[in-house]
Amino acid sequence: MSFTSEFFHPRTILAKALIVGALAALIWAGYNGHLIPVREFLNDERLTLEFMDYKISPYTVLKGLLIIFGFFWISSLVATQAEKRIAGISRMRVSNRELLSKAATLIIYFIFFVAALDMIGIDLKALTVLGGAVGIGIGFGLQKITSNFISGIILLAEKSVEVDDLIELSDGIQGFVRHTGARYSLVETFDGKEVMVPNEDFITARVINWTLTNKQGRVEIMVGVSYGADLDLVHKLLLEAAHEHERCAKFPEPVCYLDGFGDSSINFTLHFWVADVTEGRRGPKSDVQFTIWRKFAENGVEIPFPQRDLHIKSAPKGLLAETNEQKSDEA
To answer: ∠ CA 62-64-68 to the nearest 5 degrees?
Structure first.
């Protein structure tokens, strides 16, 4: 549903009309003197507290809450409209749109917040005291929230992790980045899980971004053949199996290495690249291994399994006697 349809939904219009009507009625009643007795009662000295140079009464608290509520409601509508406008700029990259959207939201809320304080009658110089209190709060209780918020801005600014990137975290979480928020980034794993990763983890921990500069990815296949196999033929068949797959990239070309001579087999490693790693690597790897199996069967190449020969040089006499008796009984 678009923003316009949400804004002009009948229930939304009714709720907004009731709120605006109630505020208008209060303002009208105040200007016409109907609320003077109520205001005088709420401003009574017995209900008033003094804090520094300010007098805090139930009337000032109620007035402040109404003004702050109204301003934040209006600022949320303006911020939402700004986000919709910015999201519609198709010529701008997703990360730039996210960064611009967050900056616009912060500026809008700050402007409306300062305007609300001015209407309430609070001297803007008091913001220095408020800033000190906020600094103490950040120092003691909001460290993680502030760190994640700043980390999110850094990620959007340097574009190291963007929406739809394929990433892998140090704890093994692997998937696509679907959303970058002020506090966390949403990672959708291959099995459909949605993991909310704090933005700080992308800054302080090691992150593998499979699609940062390009979407190519390498596939590795290891296979062993018997010692009686034609090694040149094996090398040729492995490269053919990679080249025949439709997702095998032409550059870099597939390569095949003879890794070493094992106890039971001669070991080869095949490397080939896929053009778009976001489409998966396990599928091409499985297909190429099936092709290798068929080609080996057609050309008589054997894939050996581990074998061990046991030679008994000496044994206790009792054991040899029992063995001979068993053989005579079987005969």
So the answer is: 120
